[in-house]
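We were asked to recover a plausible sequence for a given structure. The inputs and outputs are reproduced exactly as logged, with field labels preserved.

PROBLEM: sequence recovery
POSITIONS: 161
GIVEN STRUCTURE:
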């Protein structure tokens, strides 16, 4: 049986993957609509380019959260591989704690900024800029959840990894 935190990770990962897939499909549809309206009907809409840009930001940031979950971000292991197993564990734990603090800071500041721009409207769609700005704190909140699960796994596996 999977440990509880592994089960929670997988339950949380699937919806994020689905949202990313749906957003990519939406970007494709919106860009296709813009191309058809511009080059076939010679009457382009104002909003598709802006919507595609906002959706792309959401996909990129949620994708970064998924990459964090999978351990796919860039890392240099040349120095870490030279220390003992316990030393690697300590370094990994310290890196995860620093990363968690950074992610938490970006999440908190991102929510504050998203609330600050709630009166500002986007030029093309005239939606509150809070919607695209929320991509940062929501994605970083997902990352924070993933990094906490990784810290828990490191602490439970004390020196094994």
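RECOVERED SEQUENCE:
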């Amino acid at each position: 049986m999977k440990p509880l935190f592994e089960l929670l990770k997988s339950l949380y990962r699937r919806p994020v993957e689905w949202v990313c897939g749906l957003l990519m499909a939406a970007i494709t549809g919106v860009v296709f609509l813009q191309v058809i309206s511009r080059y076939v009907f010679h009457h382009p809409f104002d909003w598709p380019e802006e919507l595609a840009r906002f959706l792309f930001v959401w996909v990129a940031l949620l994708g970064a959260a998924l990459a964090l979950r999978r351990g796919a971000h860039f890392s240099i292991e040349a120095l870490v591989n030279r220390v003992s197993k316990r030393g690697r564990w300590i370094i990994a734990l310290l890196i995860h704690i620093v990363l968690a603090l950074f992610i938490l800071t970006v999440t908190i500041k991102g929510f504050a900024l998203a609330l600050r721009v709630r009166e500002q409207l986007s030029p093309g769609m005239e939606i509150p800029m809070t919607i695209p700005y929320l991509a940062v704190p929501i994605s970083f909140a997902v990352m924070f959840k993933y990094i906490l699960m990784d810290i828990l796994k490191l602490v439970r596996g004390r020196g094994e990894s």
